[in-house]
Automatic annotation (TrEMBL):
<feature type="compositionally biased region" description="Gly residues">
    <location>
        <begin position="293"/>
        <end position="303"/>
    </location>
</feature>
<protein>
    <submittedName>
        <fullName>Uncharacterized protein</fullName>
    </submittedName>
</protein>
<feature type="coiled-coil region">
    <location>
        <begin position="150"/>
        <end position="180"/>
    </location>
</feature>
<feature type="compositionally biased region" description="Low complexity">
    <location>
        <begin position="257"/>
        <end position="268"/>
    </location>
</feature>
<feature type="region of interest" description="Disordered">
    <location>
        <begin position="237"/>
        <end position="303"/>
    </location>
</feature>
<dbReference type="GO" id="GO:0003729">
    <property type="term" value="F:mRNA binding"/>
</dbReference>
<dbReference type="GO" id="GO:0005685">
    <property type="term" value="C:U1 snRNP"/>
</dbReference>
<comment type="similarity">
    <text>Belongs to the Luc7 family.</text>
</comment>
<dbReference type="GO" id="GO:0006376">
    <property type="term" value="P:mRNA splice site recognition"/>
</dbReference>
<dbReference type="Pfam" id="PF03194">
    <property type="entry name" value="LUC7"/>
</dbReference>
<feature type="compositionally biased region" description="Basic and acidic residues">
    <location>
        <begin position="269"/>
        <end position="280"/>
    </location>
</feature>
<dbReference type="InterPro" id="IPR004882">
    <property type="entry name" value="Luc7-rel"/>
</dbReference>
<keyword id="KW-0175">Coiled coil</keyword>
<feature type="compositionally biased region" description="Low complexity">
    <location>
        <begin position="281"/>
        <end position="292"/>
    </location>
</feature>
Length: 303
């Protein structure tokens, strides 16, 4: 019997519990099913985003995540903001991202201590993405890409290509700026004379001797961009709070009433969404310990 149970478990893992198609109640039909990854519905699950990277968080505990949850995202987007329980979805994502950033921040602290022990100097972090000049060029890149997409949709192919070429030129300009900033930032020096700084977003150690391709690989890499996205999302949630607005008292897992299907978004959907995120942001700010780090993190070898 134990051997048969083991075989069933292996088949369940490989083919799913409903592999024979005879468990109608087991099929996930709506985004409200508890087995659907709520952070993925909101656009960012750290288990999915950092899969197979140095910051891999393992398999998502939700049964439907990534591609399996994509088909429910349209349902969620039609519903979001129209119900009072939307804040539960946001809070679940917030808790996941907080835990992830805590891991990243502990990593950068650990590696900075290791570097300090080895060379007798604690390297400073340098935020190459947040420098005013870099932000200005990044905004121009985004604008050029959006204009190129709009031109392409309107059939203006030559104009679209010109704008994409401009975006590529601006990316090179951004890389040159980042290299210049890297060369003038406070630095640590290792035994072989290599000058290093820690990236404040993901914590990777950068060198002014790195080639352009190496720096581009870092800044455009999936892990660096992923950590930047997580930090930006956290800032969005915490930066939208209004005085006097608090989070609901309940701290339990989200409980959603059964519905025949997702209700259509009403005229006040955006207002509901804004109020829900305000409640979450205010609650998160109140719950955060004093002096909690908001900076970057580091995992060795991260690019």
């Amino acid at each position: 019997m134990q051997r048969l149970d083991h075989v069933r478990a292996v088949l369940d893992d490989l083919m799913g519990h409903n592999r024979d198609g005879d468990m109608a109640d087991y099929e996930i039909r709506t985004f409200e099913d508890r087995r659907v990854c709520k952070p993925h519905l909101l656009g960012l699950c750290v288990h999915d985003r950092f899969f197979n990277t140095t910051l891999d968080q393992g398999a998502c505990p939700s049964e439907a995540c990534g591609e399996a949850a994509d088909k429910f995202r349209k349902q969620y987007l039609a519903w979001r903001g129209s119900g009072p329980d939307r804040w539960e979805y946001v809070r679940e994502q917030l808790a996941m991202m907080d835990a992830f950033i805590a891991i990243v921040d502990r990593g950068i602290e650990r590696n900075q201590r290791r570097t300090e022990t080895a060379q007798g100097y604690r390297p400073e972090t340098v935020d190459l993405d947040a420098h005013p000049e870099v932000l200005e060029v990044a905004a121009r890149i985004d604008s050029a890409v959006k204009e190129a997409e709009a031109a392409g949709e309107e059939g203006r192919v030559d104009e679209s290509q010109r704008l994409m070429d401009e975006a590529e030129r601006l990316k090179t300009e951004k890389l040159v700026l980042q290299r210049r900033i890297l060369g003038t930032a406070p630095r640590g020096q290792v035994g072989n004379g290599h000058l290093l700084q820690a990236c404040s977003a993901c914590g990777a150690m950068l060198s002014e001797r790195d080639s352009d391709d190496r720096l581009r690989e870092h800044f455009e890499g999936r892990m660096h961009r992923g950590v930047v996205d997580v930090r930006e999302r956290l800032r969005e949630l915490r930066g939208g709070s209004r005085p006097g607005v608090g989070a609901p008292a309940s701290r339990g897992p989200p409980v959603h009433p059964a519905r025949a299907g997702p209700p259509a978004a009403g005229r006040g959907a955006d207002a509901h969404a804004a109020r829900d995120e305000d409640r979450v942001a205010a609650g998160a700010a109140a719950a955060a310990p004093a002096g909690a780090p908001q900076g970057g993190g580091y995992q060795r070898g991260a690019r």
